[in-house]
Amino acid sequence: MTYNNPADPHLAQAARQILHARLLPRVEVQTFFDEATFTATHVLHDPATKCGAVIDCVLDFDTAAGRTTTASADAVIAYLRTTGITLDWLLETHAHADHLSAAPYIQQHCGGRIAIGREILAVQNVFGKIFNLGDEFARDGSQFGHLFDDGATFSLGAIPIIALHVPGHTPADMAYIIGEAAFVGDTLFMPDYGTARADFPGGDARQLYRSIRRLLALPDETRIFLCHDYKAPGRDAFIWETTVAAQRATNIHVHDGISEDAFAAMRTARDATLGMPRLILPSVQVNIRAGQLPPPEDNGTSYLKLPLNLL
């Protein structure tokens, strides 16, 4: 196993952890793909203890009707119950702009702690202003059960986990190194599709490049699980698993040899051609609240805001 030897204490710790994880059972991963939002929800567990986690779960949302449903989350719940997995964690890689989180709904049925990176406070502050949320909206991350600092360590049964801060797509992106697998959210896509956009409020293409290079310094055989796949031209199937080695060799945006300047220029030009995600306004309002809907008004109904001519 090749280790790319960064001078980064948290990443060095993660690499050592991956090497040690070769002596442990591999984390078992079952993925549920929501084609409506192109989102991969990963359900994983330690086979020795049945301790489990859900990463980036989806609450179904009909934009035209303004109605939420739970078919995607119910499939995850059924799997947890059928397999006898004890749910310890509901992990979010960031406050998503393309789907609503179902974490509170799954927690209600299966338990577990909802967690995200500590920089969610920056995202709450930015979008609290964009949506003109009042004092009733706390901007301290208290909606979540736990906030991870960069390099925080915890475990899934006997399998060690380290949380790495990988900003650029948003200020709050986290990757979770779980045994010999890395769950990287939107930071990377499949090698034939490239990388995440960096033009959301608080995003930064240069920061994204550095975060990606940080991840690609992990051992070559590290399995990488992605949050999305959009099927690159010429590919028939959705895919959400790759490796560090494959990304370093063939990622069309950020393979070895691409400089930060070249990446930033490419990413900035590409982002300028992209429209806003279809669900960004409802998604972010819900996800900065850890998946909770806005508080009901005096008629018992929750409402989402639609800021005009702002984004």
Folded structure, characterized:
- Helices cover 27% and strands 21% of the residues.
- The chain is of the alpha/beta class and 311 residues long.
- The chain has a single domain, classed as Metallo-beta-lactamase, Chain A (4-Layer Sandwich), CATH 3.60.15.10.
- Strands 1-2-3-6-7-8 form a six-stranded mixed β-sheet, covered by helices on one side.
- α2 runs parallel beside α3 and α5 crosses α7.
- The chain starts with 8 loop residues before the first helix and ends in a 24-residue tail after the last helix.
What's the domain count? 1
Low-pLDDT ranges: none
CATH topology: the name is Metallo-beta-lactamase, Chain A
Beginning-to-end CA distance, first to last residue? 45 Å
Number of helices: 8
The assigned CATH architecture is: 4-Layer Sandwich
Structural class estimated from helices and strands: alpha/beta
Task: Please state the CA-atom Rg, rounded to the nearest Å.
Answer: 19 Å
